[in-house]
Write a structure and sequence with these properties.
6 helices, mainly alpha, metal-binding, 144 residues, single chain
């Protein structure tokens, strides 16, 4: 690993964690959002050397292996996944929002997702997924 490589490159190409997507490489789209020491960041803007020895958690690490986090289940159950390119970054951003604000208002949801671009949807299904996850209406098998 070269310390100047982006964290996103290291995650995807060196570690095989392909959940975070490479779209804009400028921190504008949010597709590569990960946690760095518990803070949501765009992995394309972080040099790998800056992340050395720190806690990095990707969308793959939100739930134990083989399981889905409630936010991931909410996205599936609300039909908020289309092409899937923006989905990992959105899920990490929503996970972060709900950790900070368990019952967010629609304006709070919009503000939290402002850094995540989706080209397939009108965002309503995404908003529905956030509301569903926040309401605790997600179960292993369906919506309560």
């Amino acid at each position: 690993m070269w310390p100047g490589e982006s964290l996103l490159y290291v995650l995807r190409e060196r570690l095989g964690l392909a959940g975070s997507k490479n779209a804009c490489e400028q921190g504008e789209c949010g597709s590569c959002t990960v946690y760095l020491d518990g803070t949501a960041v765009c992995a394309c803007l972080v040099a790998a050397g800056q992340a050395a020895g720190r806690d990095v958690r990707t969308v793959e690490g939100l739930a134990p292996e083989g399981e889905l986090d409630p936010v991931q289940r909410a996205f599936l159950q609300a039909g908020a996944v289309q092409c899937g390119f923006c989905t990992p970054g959105l899920i990490v951003s929503v996970h972060d929002l709900l950790a900070r604000v368990p019952k967010p208002t629609d304006p709070q949801i919009r503000e939290a997702l402002a850094g995540n671009l989706c080209r397939c949807t009108g965002y309503e299904k995404i908003m529905d997924a956030v509301r569903l996850a926040a309401a605790g209406g997600v179960t292993e098998t369906g919506i309560r």
